[in-house]
From TrEMBL:
InterPro entries: LS, LS/RS, LS/RS_sf. This is 6,7-dimethyl-8-ribityllumazine synthase. GO terms for molecular function: 6,7-dimethyl-8-ribityllumazine synthase activity. The active site is at H88 (proton donor). It catalyses: (2S)-2-hydroxy-3-oxobutyl phosphate + 5-amino-6-(D-ribitylamino)uracil = 6,7-dimethyl-8-(1-D-ribityl)lumazine + phosphate + 2 H2O + H(+). It is an enzyme of class 2 (transferase). GO terms for cellular component: riboflavin synthase complex.
């Protein structure tokens, strides 16, 4: 039996990446962006364009515009949704997740969901830099998917 394995790698050379980042909760999103840019630089990505939007809810629309432009091998969506006293948290988190998935499926361009959903700012800081930086991890997934799509 012949088995052919196809996997993405983490080589950034030749890749063009679009990043959509929410300004809201910028203490957290700024750290996620630092981690992502560190990853892209370490892996030799040729070009990264960063587009800022007001909040996480606005991410899918701009991700769609970037994905459909034909300029990017992948798009990374970065945001932070912090639970508050109302159901707003669930509404925003759910709609952003659905929107990002839809953009990726509709465009055929990998759009990586890098929106952290946390109970409070301390939990967010732990995920965005104090204990680890999820931005770096999301950037690694972006590289892997961009390269996988090129192989397919």
């Amino acid at each position: 039996m012949e088995v052919k394995r196809i996997e993405g790698d983490f080589i950034g050379k030749g890749l063009r990446i679009g990043v959509v980042i929410a300004r809201f909760n910028d203490l957290l999103t700024g750290e996620l962006l630092k981690g992502a840019l560190d990853c892209f630089e370490r892996h030799g990505v040729d070009r990264v364009d960063v587009v800022k939007v007001p909040g996480s809810f606005e991410i899918p629309l701009v991700a769609k515009k970037l994905a459909e432009s034909g300029k990017y091998d992948a798009v990374l969506a970065l945001g932070a949704v912090v639970r508050g006293e109302t159901r707003h948290f669930e509404l925003v988190a759910n709609e952003v997740a659905k929107g990002v998935a839809k953009v990726s499926l509709d465009s055929g361009v990998p759009v990586i969901f890098g929106v952290i959903t946390v109970e409070d700012e301390l939990q967010g800081l732990n995920r965005a830099g104090i204990k680890s930086n999820k931005g770096f991890e999301y950037a690694m997934a972006t590289l892997e998917m961009a390269n996988l799509m090129k192989k397919l």
